[in-house]
Amino acid sequence: MSKKHIFTLLSLFFTFLVSSQEENPTTKDSVKIENLEEIIVTATRTIRQLSSLPLPAQIISQKDIQRSNSVRLNNILNEQTGLITIPDFGGSKGIQMQGLDGAYTLILVDGVPLVGRLAGTLDISRITVGNIKQIEVVRGASSSLYGSEALGGVINIITETPKNGFHGNLNYRISSFNTHDLGTTLSYKKDKLGISTFFNRYSSDGYSLTDRNELSTVDPFRNHTINPKLTYKFSNRTDLIVAGKYYNQKQDYVASSLLKGETKIEDWNTHIKLNNKYSDTWSSYFEFYATQYNANEYLDDANSTSATDAFYKQLLVRPEIRATYNPNDKSSFIAGTGFNHETLDRTDFSEKPIYNSPYAYLQYDGNPTENINIILGARFDGHSEYKSQFSPKVALRYEVNDKLALKGSIGYGFKAPDFRQLYFNFTNATIGYTLLGYNAAPEAIKALDEQGQLAIISISLDQFDSELKPENSVSIDLGFDYKISTTLKLDLNLFRNNIDDLIDNKIVATKTNGQSVFSYFNINKVYTQGSEFNITWRPDNQLKITGGYQLLYAKDKDAEKAFKNGEVFARVDASSPSFQLKKDDYFGLFNRSRHMANLKVFYNIPEWNMDTNIRGTYRSKYGLNDKNGNSYLDSYDDFVDGYAIVNVAVNKTIYKNYRLGLGIDNIFDFTDPQNIGNIPGRILYAKLNIQL
Amino acid sequence: MNFSKKNHEHITKNSNSMSKTIKFLIVVALFVGFASCSDDDDPTPLVEVKSESIVNLHAPVEGGSQQGAPTFSGEFTKFDFATGKTTTSETEWDIAFRGLSIIVNGGTSAGTTDEPIRTKEAAVYIASGTIASVTEANLSMFKQDSETGYAIPEGSGNGWYTYAGDPTHLINPTPGKILVVKTRTGNYAKMEILSYYKDAPAEPDAFTDESPYFTFNYVYQPNDGVTTF
């Protein structure tokens, strides 16, 4: 099949070249080297130049997203330095950042958070990139501005807003596995009023990496996104944005040849923001955000009797007001306060929990001298269920000269225990293990014991007496930006995240069926440290080469101690005698690669109205299982081999408003069916974009 | 009378020690071999300890239903360190195996079906280390079985094994767990379980390899009162 496809692609490509030569000469691209100052809002919640920030931050431009022909958010994030998509055991794709799991990265759309972390990770593949203006990535703990979940960093997706006049576009991409992505944006703006609607439909037959059984790695699915937006300018001082979003997805759910069903996801949100400018120095906004995430899944057996039926319904309502004070152009203050109201109704829960959390934050951003920028921020999050959290942050940037700037920041991040970690009471129907939330556990264990389901209770129940603490982190980033010349620049960031009170499940009892009962505890202290390095070379407007590298050490502190003290043992194979491991044998946390790198070459050929690019990513070996049973990942465990993925794309504009794209993702057809479920192998695609 | 009795006693005593010495020498000869025999002038040497291996000790278990209370049953396979063999004796055993459970001939029964009565004062504890690095029995650590649980705790990661769970479902001995046993005769032994599967495959498969078949290495200290190995 792939040979045939390659042939088709090649022939299309040649047709392309021929047609482009026929069309020659077109009007020569005379755009000057892009030197626009990139603007970022995520780092300070104010409009800031990216290049002057004291924090490690990055912008992924719409242009790069379009040139890469990405479809979902995970596609494009995966190509950025130090970011990698990691599927959790529920299949949700989260982003690992600075070595922290997807559960520790806050995902925002236009500054407000997405919900629906069923198993802790927010599935970023549910986000289409079709209407994204830019993606902002801020690394390091940022709870001083955003509260819970901003430990590893923040990813903020900025969507398009209506521009003057009538605009419209239509996108269609067809690719391997019968995958279709159709998107369209219509927008209109005149005088005070702007309206836009974005629609996307994405469907696929899914894929199967093994022929072993009838189970697919990814089952067929289809989803829709509708995103209407309205902007209204009452005056030069007051404007309003009203945006909504609706998303649904249906996916087959096949658990075995006899158990079949469907998974349904529905997600909507409303976002209203009223901006007011009172004077040159004072402004404010009022924001109201509500979002709901519903997921349902069922399995029926061969006789169509219901085997399982599960639901998940999460609601978040958040009003917030904020004031900005700019006494002069050297300093700005922001102060905001808001309230999170969150509820969850879910199968396998011991109750319907409600979280109420008022919060307030304050930030000073100033330039005491021309060369120094300082940011001081802090946030207080009260919580109905937990100890309140105070999250400070300090960041400093010093411009040594026109070429070199040093920057450093230190901040606190936390992640409140989620509903699941507190109230879960779940027994897996097919395998038979039980997972209990911390607050639900004591009662549930007693109940299981009374029903005679427990063989052994391995902990004492008074361990549940004290409250579960939020996971928290102190993160330090130190780095520099260096502009070697107008065409060559590089940046380096050294990071360290000290994470405490990590919540993990551990076995609390063994059932008579041989399976375990797990519950959640503050168990581990870990750290992640390393460096991120980026280099960009842009000799002219035609060529852009970027390279990125992340070095990562992610380790558990207690594990390090155990190795150092010679308390850890291993076997060469399952049945050979134990021997003592050395300090150096400790590899670190699971699913972390020591090295990750990317290299991207974007090349424009204006005379042919074409652009092409080749993007490669690499991750070094990592461990997924503690094969030898000593509970640590050591050099005698099995590792997933390092691998590289190379994507190529060619795009061509014809008749000004039509743009054709062809490409191959994962050109060398890399797969690892046993260990990596989210890499389907080579994907061929063709894409058409029409500007209306 | 008195004299003769005394004399007789003396003779008996003498012959006792004589036969002990002979047994001792035979044992030494058997274990150590002639080549390593020491000079006659040397003080009586201790019996040298030696590493032994037991392969495929079959320890079947019945029951263990999916719901309700555990209903494990079946005879335990008993092991005697002094002979280095399994035994069916009700009393002359040190440790015994049934499925994942290992019991010791000391303390009280947990009351499962077919569980033997403890008749002696054997005890056990789990040390961290390799079979070579555990060089002395720590007398303060020994535990005996009780109604509430065995001296070797059950459950994955608690005692001698780790259950890998989905998808391999393997039971493998946890690395670095050395069982130190005080035998019913007050001698000491250390053992390391190597496999739960028949013929101790290097890459066991829980679905095809037969279990429970214990393979283990042990070192028995035959000299009374000697706590080192």
TrEMBL record, chain A:
The TonB-dependent receptor plug domain sits at 51-154
Pfam families linked to this entry:
Plug, TonB_dep_Rec_b-barrel
Q: Which UniProt keywords apply?
A: Cell outer membrane, Membrane, Receptor, Signal, TonB box, Transmembrane, Transmembrane beta strand, Transport
Subcellular locations according to the entry? Cell outer membrane
**Gene3D superfamilies, from UniProt?**
TonB-dependent receptor, beta-barrel domain, TonB-dependent receptor, plug domain
Phylogenetic lineage:
Bacteria, Pseudomonadati, Bacteroidota, Flavobacteriia, Flavobacteriales
Q: Please state every residue range assigned to the domain named TonB-dependent receptor-like beta-barrel.
A: 197-667
Recorded hits in PROSITE patterns, A to Z, give: TONB_DEPENDENT_REC_3
Q: Domain of life here?
A: Bacteria
Protein name in the entry: TonB-dependent receptor
The leader peptide range reads: 1-20
Membrane topology designation: Multi-pass membrane protein
Q: Specify whether Signal is a keyword of the entry.
A: yes
Which protein family is named in the record?
A: Belongs to the TonB-dependent receptor family.
- Asked whether the keyword Transmembrane is assigned, the reply is yes
Q: List the source organism.
A: Aureibaculum flavum
